Amino acid sequence: MNKRDEIKKSAVLALIVLIMGSCGGLRHKSVELSADSVKLRTVTVIDTTSYMLGNAQKCSVTAEAAITFPEGYKDEATTEQLQKLFASSVLDVQADSMQIDSAFARYAKNVLGQYGEEQDEVEYDKDERVVVSNYNSRTVIKPTYNKNGIITFEKEEVTMKNEKVTMTTHSYINISLRSMGVIEMSNIFAEDVLADVSDLLKRKLLQQLGAKDEGDLIDMGYFNLDNVVAHGNFAIGDEGISWTFGIYDIACYSVGETVITLGYDLLKPYMVEGCEVAELAK
User: Fold this and answer.
1) 88, 111, 175, 260: which one has the fewest Cβ atoms less than 10 Å from its Cβ?
2) Does domain 185-280 have CATH number 3.90.640.20?
3) pTM score
């Protein structure tokens, strides 16, 4: 990179900081208090970059995330422990040696990195390159359940190309405030009952779609019913456990995501003895 490009890059970075405000692109919103346990705060982080193509063109990528995170829980040490767990499990950022604000910035950088590696080109003036594609990633991370010693976070990711939505996905992380760890499927169900729980999911899918049999489901676009299993993308809620099946997981694109919820009373006989989730059954 020549000196002129370095000056331009510095000017652009300074402009971004001015537009986004302090904290390296972070905007803090008002504090939100949970119903019973974890104190929450929402921040917005935005980062952008561009990738040079092999000619006088480039693609622009923007990553924006609205993140609701645990701001306080019990005492300072426990709060720090929960924030590090949030960073590693929900943001997928190893934050052992960084503050939580740095984890937000790293998350946005990681999203940008999914589109490729930025290249330094001096053959053409970057400002003269034509932008041929604009990619946007918009993420909203928020709690959907926050009581009874459990907090569940939903991550909604919307990807766009040239202002048109290309994909929307939802993923979930359930955190136990008792053990200060992620609640995995194996914490709730033993391996030998997962097939039975999967059968319950298939029956519930038939019921909620008003289908008589699997043939009806296939006609509706559910082409891969073998994938209707009790997998790891589940959310603990007031009514029960909800499994989300992404686009193409079990059905064609036009069907979109499928969510199947099974009530606690139905699931309790299959749960591991002493499981804290089983306590939610009334």
Assistant:
1) 88
2) yes
3) 0.83
